[in-house]
Amino acid sequence: LQAGPYDNLKEVALKILQNDVCTVPIIHSSSDDGSFPQLLHLASLSGILKCIFRYFRHVSGSLPVLQLPICSIPLGTWVPKIGESNGRPLAMLRPSASLSAALNLLIHAQVSSIPIVDDNDSLLDIYCRSDITALAKDRVYTHINLNEMTIHQALQLGQDSFYPYELRSQRCQMCLRSDSLFKVMERFGNPGVRQVIIVEAGSKRVEGIVTLSDIFRFLLS
């Protein structure tokens, strides 16, 4: 799976989405027979989005769809009666849930992240597939019980012991349902952001989640 330097951004984005991969190598060969290929770049959805912003940041008003509130657009995953669902239930877990429950949910719900909420469904943190790599640190996975370790404990594996648990929510990118599509897309400009949590103002009660893939599927539909 690869793309060439003269492929347009839409073609590259579609290759990423259709093949469910994170990056596509951009390959160039100076010879007609394709020998001696050179790797020029690794294209990703976040990189493509940055390119889009580079050209449309100052003219977003000319694209009315970017000014629509996120809850009025058919993308993302929402709790019932808030926004249009994409057909999947919005998966959430409590910090006291087992790590095994989180891993099973990531696999069976086919999602890349799970909002971690309190008893009022207010956002505390987020558990991502990338957090699983913390289990490989010092071979932690060899001496833990997935059914006994909580999500709270698992998330602390990658953090210093003095880092307050309440402050971990700062790594969660949030928006309100009334925010525009453009504002939500801006959140994805931050390094490493793959999802934005839609919360209720004040309570931070989780109302939905929008991923980078959701954004591109909507734009390319």
TrEMBL record:
The keyword Repeat applies. It comes from the Eukaryota. Residues 86-142, 167-221 form the CBS domain. Keywords: CBS domain, Repeat. Pfam families: CBS. The keyword Nucleotidyltransferase does not apply. This is CBS domain-containing protein. It comes from Linum tenue.
